[in-house]
Amino acid sequence: MKRSFALPLACFATLSGCAFEEGLPEIEVIGTVVVPKEAATRTVLDTDGNESEVTDVRFIGPVYLGAFPSIVAGDFDYTHPEMGPVIDPEFPGNTYPFGGTTIGRFDFACFEATACMVTTGRYDSFASIIDYFNTYVGTPLVDPYGDEVSSEKYFEQYCFDYYNVTSWQELSFLAVDADGNTDLDFTENADGDFVADFDMPATLYTEGMAIWGWIDSPSDAYSFSTCDTSRDGAQTNEYNLEFDAGGGHQMVLNYPSVYIFEGDYVSTEGYIMTSEDDEPVVNLDYMYTGAK
Amino acid sequence: MIRRSTLLTVAAIGGLAIGAACDRTGLDLTAVPNPDYPAILELGELPVLTTSEWAAVRAGATADVEAYVNYEQVGAPEPGDKGGVTFTFKGTGDEVCVMVDPESVYWNQSVAAAGTNSVYAHPDNYEDDGDLDIYAGLSATYTGSPGVELGDFIGQYTDSLGNVTDIEYNLCQHIGSGGDSYVHAGRGAPEWCEIDTAEREGIEYTVLLRTFSLPIDDDVLSFGVAVYEGSCQNLTECTIPGESRSIDEDGGAREGNFRALESAFCNNEQGDYCEANPSMCGDY
């Protein structure tokens, strides 16, 4: 083939590729969640034993979002996606979600104590993690030798060695962009609430479907119901180290009620999609206060 | 440019290949329906053996085994149809184990050039082996017509927006040797699963043994099946002995018998048995 034909042909192929409509029923849902300020606020004790209210983005656990046929009230003490038949008496019905995503997920920050404690998109430095454990959890981070981790540089070097990496950007539990700038999931809006963008890929679109979700807020002991410290997590077995690094449970969106506990924030109404081009805004506005 | 002679040569080779392929239909590798042996068999309700009855089976006295294990035979379906066996049992409110052992035995031949394991030195005769896959669930979720047409345990759920989702109601999970779930044992190998019937005492369950393959030496698959209370523990090829039945033994083409072959296999002596009875193994 002569070269003079090759270039136009390539251009034609490229342009026609852009115009090709696959006709798939799945879409990419891009939207925003709004987390009330209260969900990021806790009453904590300072070193003198005085109580104070603190608002901190690090109190926002993983946010689980799914697309469901509908949201119904009455099955639980909070609104919940409609469910299929109960097959296993020990489980509720499956919600059969059309798609889902999270804003933040559990990640292992090198030391055993961080298993199931650290959510991505909440910490922008090693110092931030050290501070979270010292100030809120109340149990300082310790290394495998039992020594308290107080040096950010030591934390960094330990993680570089643990993961065989050389930069912060390679550690997904640190919210730092390619330029080294802070890149947390949530930002505070004018009302004092926190907002974050979400991207729910490959979601089966059906007109009228609801985007709904909840926050797995940390318990009083700063643990999370959607994280499994023993079963699903990556294991660490090196010399004197032997522990599970933790990881998220499976089928969380299929059985939300199994994982929603007191203190978690749930979307009351979700967002009903009437067009594939909708950009849903999901308010996680209702705090579940426990079974009535 | 490709020369014409080259094209002709390629065409000739292609034609030869196609012509040669046509002389092998592969029908000799499939089982043929036999009117004396139905392809779809309904056994009715099988009793759930008690712990002591199952212990008697495990003890191996022939009279007990014959009394408590169901030995049956199923034939080949017409091409394109599904064949298999169904039966029911009643939930006990606890764990129930279902076990099936299709004929006959299977082993891998030891082909090492040095250090050959003499027990497995002879090949297995794969033509006398069949394969049944177990599925089970509440009878209410079974879609087939027992004895007439096979079904499955897949139901449909339609959500409020009209989307239909398949629901798997099969409760039978055979755990593979590697710990994998939802697997099936292969040709000639026993298969089993536990079904938790908690809170469903007296409720009817249906078991489907789907014919995956039949022995091509006689086109009839003999098997033994049992249902007993408790969990499936330490089950092997030797748990249900003598599943090969009359048509296998009456063939007359081979010397020896399947019960002796299975017994030799269970005692790690099939090497010697095959040496003495090569027609019962894969050497003939």
Describe this protein's structure.
The complex is a heterodimer of chains A (292) and B (284). Chain A is α+β, with helices and mostly antiparallel strands and 292 residues long. Chain A has one domain (23-287). Chain A is 14% helix and 27% strand. Chain A has helices at residues 3-19, 126-137, 152-163; strands spanning 26-35, 41-45, 51-55, 63-68, 71-72, 80-81, 99-103, 106-107, 118-119, 187-188, 194-204, 210-215, 227-228, 235-238, 241-244, 247-248, 265-266, 271-272, 281-283, 286-287. In chain A, a hairpin with a 5-residue loop joins strand 10 (187-188) and strand 11. The radius of gyration of chain A is 22 Å and the shape is globular. In chain A, 33% of the residues are buried. Chain B contains six helices and ten strands; from the N terminus they run αβααβββββββββααα. Chain B has one domain (31-280): Sandwich (Jelly Rolls), CATH 2.60.120.380. Chain B is of the alpha+beta class and 284 residues long. Chain A binds chain B through residues 69-70, 82, 84-85, 87, 89, 94, 96, 98, 204, 206-209, and chain B through 157, 159-163, 165, 167, 169, 198-199.
